[in-house]
Specification:
The protein has 155 residues and is α+β, with helices and mostly antiparallel strands. It is built from 4 helices and 5 strands. The chain has a 5-stranded mixed β-sheet, covered by helices on one side. α1 packs across α2.
């Protein structure tokens, strides 16, 4: 059963509003430097940079994840056919349905979609604190391409 349903532009507007809030929270937890701008402002600026034309930004695709007839999450994907590559900006599942295998199913569905489009490389970024996602991606065969590290220095 197909569970990835393309978003409409109206869906996107609601999604991106939620995404900015969630991304700001992630930045608060994972930015290891002193920055004067708020996490919310940084999230808005980053997403505007990735999506200068919003829903109509070239190569970007947005999907709802459907479970039991309801929206259970989102996918934001960038596909560059000429490079035969895709980058997963986000796969998000509502908290009440996590750890039930749906993330793995959705990643497998995404892989099938990309293979059908002759995409050879599927890339993503995951924050080091997201151990559950890291385990999933390793299990699905993703390999580490680089690692950012930090150390908090006491004064």
């Amino acid at each position: 059963m197909k569970r990835l349903i393309p978003m409409t532009e109206a869906d996107y507007d609601l999604y991106i509003e939620d995404k900015i809030k969630r991304y700001a929270h992630t930045l608060e937890e994972n930015t290891f430097e002193v920055i004067n701008d708020s996490a919310f402002l940084r999230a808005q600026q980053a997403i505007s940079g990735y999506l200068p034309h919003g829903f109509n930004t070239k190569n970007h695709e947005f999907y709802h994840i459907i479970e039991n007839g309801k929206v259970a999450g989102y996918v934001w994907l960038k596909v560059v056919n000429e490079n035969k590559s895709a980058f997963l900006y986000e796969i998000y599942l509502n908290e009440d349905i996590r750890s039930k295998g749906l993330g793995k199913e959705m990643m497998t569905e995404l892989e099938s979609l990309l293979i059908s489009r002759e995409i050879l490389f599927f890339k993503l970024h995951v924050f080091g604190s997201n151990e559950q996602a890291i385990r999933l991606y390793h299990h699905l065969g993703f390999q580490i391409a680089g690692i950012n590290m930090y150390k908090h220095l006491s004064q």
